[in-house]
Design a protein that fits this description.
Blueprint (H helix, E strand, L loop, with lengths): L1 E5 L4 H5 L5 H10 L4 E5 L10 H11 L2 E7 L10 H18 L4 E4 L10 H19 L5 E5 L8 H11 L4 E6 H6 L4 H7 L4 E6 L2 E3 L11 E3 L9 H10 L5 E4 L7 H24 L1 H7 L1
Parallel strand pairs: 1-2, 1-10, 2-3, 3-4, 4-5, 5-6, 6-7, 7-10
Antiparallel strand pairs: 8-9
């Protein structure tokens, strides 16, 4: 499995202008990761030099694990549909230019009143709009599992079966399933053989003096929270997954510290997983 860093790990630095896209790529390269997960929300400057970004990717050897796009429910309805389609065409052109393997629909945080049927309808509308634009492009489509108790892994699996297109799979966010009230391991089992991209994210319960980010939770250094990182790696390896693990740090700690601490923990988990694979007898003895 190859490791990437998500741009959202340094969200504050990017939106405040303390770091630009080129600087992010160089930062990721300094961490000796295999790739980056790029996000359209940070690449919307009209003066952005995409050719320069592509050159830095080539120089550093970084690959683009996926290119994230964001389309909310209200933007694909009625008169907004054509504008959304035009934006999708631009986004997919950028993803292709930068050599992304997947374009990923990033799920919004749905209110509890939003029904599963509404979420399903949104995803189907986006897939219907995106698939024709993918024709002739070397890109797959990943749908991130949303943070919704109304639309869990069994619903996503059923929807993918309905879509029935090998180019459409899941971008599995480890924390989202937990935040949706589902066991992440169960979610992985339900989505077996349908996963195109994995995002490693961790959360913990907020302390009394902290303002929660989602529900009762805040992000944290990966490996120190409630997401069973090592067990989930064991499950996806057993399923034969050999794709990307993209690290996204969302905690309250300083972003560079949190990203680098998360990367150390992620690499340690992957190293232990590899050791167990090479020495199964020692792993069994330790149980």
């Amino acid at each position: 499995m190859r490791v990437a860093i998500s741009m959202r790990s340094v969200h504050g630095s990017l939106v405040q202008g303390d770091m630009d896209v080129i600087e992010f790529l160089k930062y990721a390269a300094s961490l000796a990761v295999d790739g980056v997960e790029l996000d359209n929300i940070y690449l919307q400057d009209a003066e952005l030099d995409y050719a320069a970004i592509r050159d830095v990717l080539t120089e550093t050897g970084l690959k683009v694990s996926c290119y994230d796009i964001h389309h909310r429910m209200e933007t694909v309805k009625g008169g907004d549909r054509q504008a959304a389609l035009d934006k999708i065409k631009e986004e997919l052109s950028v993803a292709e230019l930068l050599g992304a393997e997947y374009v990923q629909i990033v799920g919004e945080v749905f209110e509890s009143a939003v029904k599963a049927s509404d979420i399903k309808a949104l995803i189907l509308q986006l897939v219907e709009m995106i698939l024709p634009v993918l024709h002739g492009k070397d890109l797959g489509l990943a749908i991130e599992n949303p943070k919704s108790a109304e639309f869990q892994s069994q619903d996503m699996a059923a929807l993918l079966q309905q879509i029935d297109n090998p180019r459409v799979k899941v971008g599995f966010n480890m924390a989202n399933s937990l935040l949706a009230g589902e066991d992440p391991e169960t979610a992985l089992q339900n989505l077996k053989n349908r996963i195109a991209h994995v995002r490693a994210v961790d959360v913990r319960l907020a302390h009394q003096d902290e303002e929660p980010q989602i529900g009762d939770y805040v992000g944290c250094v990966i490996g120190l929270g409630l997401v069973p990182l090592k067990r989930l790696f064991q499950v996806i390896q057993a399923q034969g997954y050999e794709g990307w693990i993209s690290l996204e740090f969302t905690g309250l700690e300083e972003a560079h510290f949190g990203t680098e601490a998360s990367l150390r923990n992620l690499r340690q988990s992957l190293s232990e997983l590899h050791y167990e694979e090479l020495h199964p007898e020692k792993f069994i003895e330790s149980l």
